[in-house]
Amino acid sequence: MGLVIEDARLGGEARAKALTQEERRAIAAKGGEAKALKAAGRGPLPKATHEGMLRIGDAEIACAVLENGKRVLTQSGFLLALGRSRQARGRDPNTADDNLPAFMRANNLKQFIPSDLTLTTSHVEFRRKEGGRAFGYPAEMLPRVCGVFLDAKAAGVLTHNQEAIASTALLLVRGLANTGIVALIDEATGYQYGPMPLRPSPTEQAGPDNSRE
Q1: Contact 122/112 with Cβ under 8 angstroms?
Q2: What is the Cα–Cα distance from 127 to 121, expressed in whole angstroms?
Q3: What mean pLDDT do residues 164-189 have?
């Protein structure tokens, strides 16, 4: 048993020496993150299994699908799409609107924000495919936030700065509508789950050969 333990120790030391500096940093960061999560009583962060760029009109928003099936838009991409700073402001734990992004806490917007939206706007922390932590918002939050600003605009209660967000929100909603109808048809027909259509062969493209007739 002593020899087995010693061999394992020597093998571990050899593997540690073979690691690059970047690999050592990544392992250390992951270990530090695990300790922090354990201290906070939280489990490991969900990992992104798929990542990409969502294009809605002229806007491009980094997005991901997490291993738990949740679809998220990155926090910076979400805010930039609405014309806001890519860095979310700190939250005030003494306010009832703690879950809401800072730009949605204005008093003139409160009457247009459904209670369930307040409960679902907390950011989602996750791990990227290539490592490193990221923050995002549930994907379904984007059209609902746009709806808040459009409703407030229709009521004529927006400030000058909020008018700019409402204009952007309208463009996003139109882009989502155009994209949404295609996605709905794909889902209804099963097209997105089926095999990719085969390209016609050069012979098929050219049509039937009537030269021998």
Answers
A1: no
A2: 19
A3: 86
